[in-house]
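Take a look at this chain, tokens included, and explain the fold to me:
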Amino acid sequence: MTASDTPAADRPASGPPASGPPAPPADRSAADRAVDAIWRIESARITAALTRLVGDFGTAEELAQDALVAALEQWPEAGVPANPGAWLTATAKHRAIDLIRRERSYARKLAQVGQELETGQQTGTEDPAAALGEAIEDDLLRLVFTACHPVLSTEARTALTLRVIGGLRTDEIARAFLTSEATVAQRIVRAKRTLARAEVPYEVPEGAELAVRLASVLEVIYLVFNEGYAATAGDDWMRPALCEEAMRLGRVLAGLMGDSAEVHGLVGLMELQASRSAARTGPDGAPVLLLDQDRRRWDQLLIHRGLAALDRAWGLATPPGPYTLQAAIAACHARARTPEDTDWVRISALYTALAERAPSPVVELNRAVALGMAFGPATGLELADRLVGEPSLQGYHLLPGVRGDLLARLGRHAEAVAEFERAAALTRNARERAVLLERAAASAREATDGK
């Protein structure tokens, strides 16, 4: 954690009475790493609780980061507290008290916060956050829905969610999305202003609005995962840190919304896809296509967890939603011990259901792949050809990539060359471009040999 990433503290935080002996003083680098790790875990809960107290999203984040600065100042000398999360929470709340004292209009909230802290000390509660029980969980849920509010652009929602829920620093977000720190910082600042200007209430929506707003939350989480699973640009095929962060956010949300089928469906989908991560690249970092992967390298723990999440989602869903259906498709691959064992007929049926539930050209393209595997490349190509004129797919490299594969399987190699080369020209990922050009070269050889 760098000082430039946090606002200057007005004074060191006093912190709560220690509930146990602090760890011995550590060297500064070790303490910094401890602060960074704990902040990643606790920042969202702290910010969520503070937002409820001070009523302002931006102010809450500044107070939370004041506590972080205090930790950076004090822990290298005094040692990491026995309960660092509680230390940060209580320190942030003391900062909130200071702020409220300075603003008379918040007198009522001062009494509320003071009573909460006093109660926690008198009862010997080790974790002030725990004393608030379900209120903290409710606060966190409010924070998730606020950060992912549809009034924000997709880019703003993503940046704000990774910052306040994921606890990522500005430079980490910038690095993940191959953009500048200044750009990310501006997105976050503008997002906060937009939320304030729109007077977005700090609450969990109810009724019909909940479904709409939950879809926005899940979209952001899956967007983060997908950017990590198949990077749209850059030299790397995958960015595992983004996948891990998205799965962590999904698990947090599943813990908060246990009755939501689509939340479990998304978690299952991400776990099952992530289970293949180690097998998706070769020793040189080049992509390895699904059917060519060494399935012994698939992560069985993630598969087990993904299937469990899918079972829970399927039991709650009536009918299954888009994420649950996609998780079911991923499960077909996970259960196949060899590529030949894959149940492509069931996958085709699931894609048909998905197309009915959430129609989109991309779903249709995936359905073309499944049909091509289940019933032959001609069947898949027939559907893929119908998508050629689709405006939203004109710059989508996977459309010519899929057509190239189907044409090659039909022995129409000269046409496949053109499609693979078109796909390579459209992708912004260097690894993926190399694979597509290799396939174009292979098809060119087949075309020459066939003459």
Summary: The radius of gyration is 25 Å. The mean pLDDT is 82.
